[in-house]
Amino acid sequence: MNEKIFYASGKNKLCGILNKVNTSDLLVVICHARASSKDSKPTTLIAESLTKTNINNFRFDFLACGESTGDTLNYAVTNMLINLEDTLQKMKEDYGFNNFILIGCSMGARIISLINHKHFYISKIILWYGALNYKFKLFNLPSHKEKIAKKQGYYPIEKGIKLSYDYFVDERKYFADKNLSKWDVPKLFIHGTNDPYVNYKSSVKVSHKCQNAQLILIKNGDHGFHNEECMNLALEETLKFIQK
To answer: Mean of the pLDDT values across residues 165-169?
Structure first.
């Protein structure tokens, strides 16, 4: 069953696609990268791969992305965490899923790292080229983007999205690396060695500080695994981790 679902999260209406292919209570929830959507190539290929392997999956748009409503100036880590929590609650209450595996791409990886896992049973997490900002969070210093946002009210990124100054203030409250290091759930880090946006060494450093963590480095892989061979390897390792 392939079902498009619209549901509430705060003042916004989110959109997601549920692929229910068996009767188990296990659901893999896929979180897209910043300025992306549920229909991006990585999230779509992950969903297709899971569906073909008879694994229930759900991919959704964060607020102000894809088919979800919302103003990009309200796009913030706190609000994205609320979106994910509301998504899990929706899947639990309305569809009977009680066991979740979370997959996050780039910023999505940071969001799944910060989820309050005490409210839901999360059995595994998978972080694709995670934007964990290890060094930035270690020193907790303002970035040059934050300084620009403070000066002009926002920082423009791709696809017309404007990150407000409050976005950066909010972002600096969270420490994904510390949260991951205290969380004993099985973790898989997958990162390309040629990632121009998020250095793969951040995944190396964070994974080494974590309990129950596995690291897969994909030689010559970029941010998004645009090379077919790299993408296929990432998908293969993801399925292997889920099924073991």
So the answer is: 89
Mean pLDDT of 205-233: 96
Kindly give, in sequence order, each residue whose CB lies less than 8 Å from that of residue 233, ignoring residues fewer than 6 positions away.
218, 221
CA atoms within 13 A on the CB side of 114: 24
Contacts of 187 (CB under 8 A, 6+ apart): 124, 125, 126, 127, 180, 207, 210, 212, 213, 214
CA distance 61 to 38: 5
**Closest listed residue to residue 194, CA positions, set 149, 230, 170:** 230
Other beta carbons within 10 Å of 35: 19
Please report, rounded to a whole number, the percentage of residues in the chain having pLDDT higher than 90: 78
Q: Quick check: helix, strand or coil at residue 190?
A: strand
Confirm if 22 and 77 have CB atoms less than 8 A apart: no
Place of tokens 């880590």: 77
Residue 215: how many other CB atoms lie within 10 Å: 17
Which domains are delineated in the chain?
2-243 (3.40.50.1820)
What distances in angstroms separate CA 215 from CA 101, 128, 172, 192, one per listed residue?
17, 10, 26, 11
The dihedral of CA 142, 145, 149, 151: what is its sign? positive
> Model pTM?
0.94
